[in-house]
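During the no-cost extension, the postdoctoral fellow (Dr. R.K.) reprocessed legacy sequence entries with the updated structure-token encoder. One reprocessed record is reproduced below for audit purposes.
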Amino acid sequence: MIDFTNCENEYRKYYDGLNGKKKAIYYENELYMLKFPKENHINDDNYASSTINEHISSNIFKILGFNTQDTLLGTYDSKVVVACKDFEYFENQLFSFGKIKNSVLDGSDSSSFYDTDLNETLNAIENQRAINPNRLKEHFWKMFIADTLIANFDRHNGNWGFLTYKDGNIDIAPIFDCGSSLYPKLNIDDIKHYLEHEGSFNDLMLNHTTSAISINGKKINPQNFLKENTDRDIMNALQSVLSQIDRQKINALIDSIEIISDTRKEFYKFVIEKRERFLKNILKKNVILLPSKDSSIDEKITKIDNAKSQLESKAHISSHDKVKQIDEQIDDAKNSEADSYKPRKP
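Re-encoded structure tokens follow.
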């Protein structure tokens, strides 16, 4: 890992945030924000480190195709730190979505900057004028799905937003601040317990993983929210993110982190596998089949059903195997179109 201890400090740049100390340094002539964990020591796997998870989760976002802040994992004295490339530098300016939300004057009784009420956030997305609302809403739901995949419980309106550039242009800011992902508070004994007890692991995945987003003052369970939702925009985002998941790359990323144990690596991989499977099951329940390029699947199945009916009308025992064969053809026809779908209308 990179040793940042003797890097040049930048004393004109400072960062806010609640989770740990931060300082500005230069590494290879680039400005980085060093994020320090609240507690850890090198070669001690029995601690929860949001810095390691920040690096892993940021790079998972990259694998999923998001514009994401660059990160480097390293050390500073006896601490494991993550260096996050400063995409503001001294030329650009980040505006958190909380500030955007506060600027929307639509006649509604909006709550505070820090409030993450889903309906208020969606209303602000629709009524802000800096970014195309449809594009911004698409980004929001894709980010929500990706955060659900990595179990990020802290995506609030202060850690996503817009970036204005020195030439006056504005765009959606890169993804940043992903340290509250992959259950960073679990120590190695907790992890071993979950790996050894499937019921406890499933309970953790489905019932004890919340989002910072709230509805009617209560934080949502993103798994239940998605399971109960058939909104077209959400399902489109789900389909898009799932199509980008490359488990081979994600597993290689996790394996490349030398500072964590094989047990912790196994747990992180299992979390991604389990949560991907859950998201796929949600999508399967919310799709309809599209016509095939040659002829519609409905036509194919109708022809096979007709042939099956003709066979069944004949009182020949020998037809049983043929009927079974045609049943299999029907299943094959359905499965052949499984990748061609669109979300149900809400």
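Residues 95-160+179-288 form a domain with the Phosphatidylinositol 3-kinase Catalytic Subunit; Chain A, Domain 5 fold (CATH 1.10.1070.20). The two ends are 49 Å apart (CA to CA). The remaining legacy entries will be reprocessed before the final report is submitted.
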